[in-house]
Design a protein that fits this description.
Layout: H1 10-17, H2 21-37, H3 46-52
Pfam families: HTH_28 (PF13518)
Domain Insertion element IS150 protein InsJ-like helix-turn-helix: 2-33
InterPro entries: InsJ-like_HTH (IPR055247)
Length: 53
């Protein structure tokens, strides 16, 4: 949510949370793929992702 809502970089989130960037990347990709699968957003559509959060 920090990545989408607050527009923080993966590197910045990693430093703040202690979670590796690879893990963050995996979680973000999984979240975005699930939204696409559910038909809620189109790939690359940031506004709808923010609205869903």
């Amino acid at each position: 949510m920090m990545y989408i809502r607050d527009r923080k970089s993966q590197r910045q989130i990693s430093k703040e949370t202690g979670i590796s960037r690879d893990t963050l990347r995996k979680y973000i990709r999984k979240y975005e793929n699930k939204l696409i699968e559910l038909g809620k957003i189109n790939k690359g559509d940031d506004m709808n992702k923010v609205d869903l959060i």
